[in-house]
Design a protein that fits this description.
The chain is an alpha/beta fold. It has eight helices and nine strands.
């Protein structure tokens, strides 16, 4: 049985093809001004290469936009299933996406027990860090090397708009760009940890998903602010929602 999970995110649209319990293909494209078109384009691209698809499940912001979908499932449920698929030992999932951040707690079977979502403030998201890197004329993909040997500058603003003004002011004071970026990383991780600790159990086993989970400096900072030795992640961390959608698709057709 082959299941296609599609995650229509604010920044990227992701696809995962699952054959029973084995991931056989992944693809990702930027979400354009038309999330529907991005979802349809990615679906068609996958379909060209894999004709035999038994079930299609969509999740994310644009989950209702693909007519061919058999099931449309919330991102909370899909992230839980995806994280549990990659790391069955976790009990807490932290996802920092392009436009929001989520904390999800799960039980021993990977079912959601509770969650919190912050979609009101951009200052704790990937978009804010992308903006910061553009301000210092670099790319977010270079963040680990960019902040090497840096000392974090203090970022006081709790709002992305005011924080951007603060960054401009720090640059005008000749504060090293690496120090500013590391300060922003610390600010995001501190706020995410405070958010997560409202829900997470004592000594949580954290799985960190989303695009920012690819970067060592962010993983280390988040672990430090959570007071844990490390946060677990996976090379496919950015596909967590799509993996979960595909996993749930397999479960549904098996029923």
């Amino acid at each position: 049985m082959i299941s296609l999970g599609l995650d229509s995110g604010s920044s990227m649209t992701k696809a995962v093809l699952l054959e029973d319990t084995r991931i056989i293909d992944t693809k990702m494209i930027p979400t354009s001004i038309s999330p529907r078109k991005s979802l349809e384009d990615l679906y068609r691209e996958i379909q060209k290469q894999h004709k035999e698809i038994d079930v299609i499940v969509t999740t994310g912001y644009g989950r209702n936009l693909l007519d061919q979908a058999d099931f449309k499932i919330t991102e909370i449920t899909c992230h839980a299933a995806g994280a549990f698929f990659m790391n069955p030992d976790c009990d807490t999932i932290i996802d920092i996406g392009g436009q929001d951040s989520k904390v999800i707690t799960i039980d021993d079977l990977g079912c959601v027990t509770d969650f919190l979502m912050n979609d009101k403030c951009a200052a704790g998201t990937g978009r804010f860090l992308e903006m910061t890197m553009k301000r210092v004329e670099s790319e977010i993909e270079r963040i680990d090397t960019f902040v090497k040997d840096a000392k974090p500058a203090k970022i006081n603003s709790m709002c992305a708009v005011f924080a951007e003004s603060e960054i401009v002011g720090l640059l005008a004071q000749d504060i090293a760009p690496g120090d500013i970026v590391l300060g922003c990383v610390e600010s995001i991780c501190q706020r995410t940890a405070a958010f997560a600790q409202k829900l997470a159990p004592a000594n949580p086993k954290v799985f960190f998903s989303g695009g920012l989970a690819q970067f060592d400096v962010i993983k280390q900072s988040l672990a430090s602010h959570l007071g844990v030795k490390e946060v677990a992640t996976d090379p496919l961390c950015q596909y967590t929602g799509a993996i979960g959608a595909a996993v749930l698709g397999i479960r549904k057709i098996k029923r």
